[in-house]
Amino acid sequence: MTPTVPRTLYEVLGVGPNADDAEVESAYAGFAFGPNPNVPTDVTEAYRFLQDATRRAWYNELIEACERDELLHIEPAKLGSFKAHCDLAQITIFPKPGAPNCYAVRLLGQAPPVWTHNARPVGQPGPPIPTRADRFWEAFEAVFLFGALRRASIGGKLGLAVLYSFVIAAGALGIRWAGRELTAMRAAALVRDVQAGHAAASEKLAQLVRRTSDMDAEFRSVTGADFDPATGKSTRPRPEVDEAIVRHETVRDAWAALENGRVRPAEIQAAHSTLAAIHDRIQSRTIVPDDRKRLEDLIKWIEQGAAKLPRQSDFIKHIKTMVETDRFERKSPSSEGSGS
Questions:
Q1: Residue ranges of domains in the chain
Q2: Which of 207, 216, 312, 318 is the most buried (most CB within 10 A)?
Q3: Residue 300 confidence class, pLDDT cut points 50, 70, 90
């Protein structure tokens, strides 16, 4: 025969519900000083709770509420302390759905209230609330992992199979279309970049040629010399310039800088050839990705050449100044006197 589960602390301690302090002490002493002095934990807890007359009276009221199956109205501010006392008395409380601040109480071993199948004691965690991610994965499993297909009839399975086939085919077509659109967009961007780069390089190269021509004209006017188109070296200047080169180290350095730093006609011709080839590919719609890099390198070279021109103009002015200084010294009286 299955032993009866004690329902009240009085039954745990082995006394009646109307026991006084002396009876409670005597019952506990029977456990503590009996033949087996090891007092069970539930007996000790029952004794500690029932030895207080005030708590024993409060406990008796809860027993009556359990027997009458009535609800208790507990204010939220007092719910914490009430729950703590119920834990000591091994009493479980259940919130009444739809009735704020109303609770049912159940003794140890007593069944939960009949008005709910999912009665959850106050203070105990309930089932986790599903998040949006949980709902998403549940729907994903039902649709894409054929959760719905397993529960469908034969006709439903055929319909779902057709639907899945249509979705897969539509996805493949969409990916193919997106790939074509992306390729077309990249090609259009390449054409725009090459056209813009070609226009910018052509304009910059024309400016470089014009400024180089002006500087060469100034060089010829000052020195009477010119640059050999093939070698880039200068021809023999006028005698007074030649004499200044011999006499002054700064003039020699300026002359060498003009010969070595000048943009040569062969380089300009190569730049024109590159621009012409890219222009032909633009017209024939045969642009290649390397054209963008070629134009970037060409523009960089043009800008570097243009950056040298102001310095070269300063070299020409310095040569002119030194030649005029030498000419003035030769014509001055002190120079004539020292020469005689």
A1: 9-106, 198-328
A2: 312
A3: very high
